[in-house]
Design goal:
mainly beta, globular, disordered N terminus
């Protein structure tokens, strides 16, 4: 049998046996590891949509069933699975980690940010009141916390803005509105705190990344619509590597881009499809402390793991 035939046979056995499908490859341009399968049993996925990694290396992933599940780096289910109190209106769409190692959940359709411990027990929440007044929230797409304890919450729909709260969830400031000018947004989808202390925002429908101080002052932007290096099509999530590179997942281009913090492209990975190394409507990513990228391949119901060397300049 050829190596390709062996690979296909292994995949078919995994699918028929009901276990999650795993794919390994040592090629620098291919995914290092692929895992996950469609389903509703513990450890399965139904359109996963957000991911984060805590200081212990545990991955937390939420899917369209509203389940937040924990896994180790090898894709093994760790036995933690929980949901927000109510999800009839919709599911969470953003996850993060607090400075203390707890889990931040953007409870999107309930205008709320919830904080859980790693066992899935809710510690507290803030927001909850829909509206456009200070302290009220629209559709909450993501939230991050800085080393001083301040939370930054991305909103779109009713509000296209970023709102800042203190460590107790009290309103501090907000900035932004719907539009295309610098400091304006069209569906701010995700946030990341950079190694330079600045706040980076994925401005999805403006196909760009915007950068702010933590007091809301506009610093710079980069990106424009397109598929060339340095261009974006629906940037949906972003994360920094420990070495300082920025990774951006593009839902529209169905790829991930590796960039400098100023927006110079250092390579891309992926493309549309169902095979390992291809993506179908990817929503999110996370970078672990070793600099390895874990990509949420949403419509393929799986996670793909990629080494930094896998990103090639076009």
């Amino acid at each position: 049998m050829t190596p390709r035939s062996v690979l296909i046979l292994i995949l078919l056995i995994g699918i028929c046996a009901g276990g999650f499908v795993v794919w390994n490859n040592s090629s620098s341009s291919a995914p290092e590891f692929v895992w996950g399968k469609k389903g509703v049993l513990p450890g399965d996925f139904s359109r996963p949509r957000a991911i984060t990694i805590d200081p212990q290396g545990r991955m937390f992933i939420v899917d369209f069933t509203a389940r937040i599940q924990s896994f180790n780096r090898q894709g093994e289910f760790l036995g933690v699975s929980f949901t927000p109190p109510d999800f009839r209106n919709g599911r969470p769409s953003g996850l993060g980690i607090t400075r203390d190692g707890n889990l931040i959940v953007a409870d999107s359709h309930y205008h709320t940010v919830r904080i859980y411990n790693p066992a899935g027990e809710e510690l507290f929440h803030f927001g909850g009141t829909p509206g456009d007044q200070p302290g009220q929230l629209g559709y909450v797409s993501d939230a991050v916390q800085d080393s001083e304890g301040f939370y930054y919450v991305a909103e779109f729909g009713q509000n296209d803005r970023i709102t800042k709260f203190d460590a107790e969830g009290k309103f501090v400031a907000c900035w932004g509105k719907n539009g295309q000018a610098p400091g304006e947004f069209a569906r701010v989808r995700a946030l990341a705190l950079g190694p330079d202390g600045l706040l980076y925002a994925a401005d999805a429908c403006n196909h760009r990344i915007q950068v702010f101080t933590r007091t809301g002052e506009f610093v710079r932007e980069f990106g424009k619509p397109g598929s060339a290096p340095g261009e974006f099509n629906l940037p949906y999530d972003l994360a920094f590597a420990p070495s300082g590179e920025l990774y951006v997942v593009e839902r529209g281009n169905q790829r991930v881009q590796k960039l400098t913090k100023d927006g110079t492209s250092l390579g891309t990975w992926g493309g549309p499809g169902r095979k390992p190394g291809q993506l179908a409507d990817p929503w999110a990513l996370a970078v672990d402390r070793e600099g390895v990228v874990h990509i949420v391949d949403t419509e393929n119901h799986r996670i793909q793991r990629v080494q930094p060397a896998g990103f090639r300049v076009q």
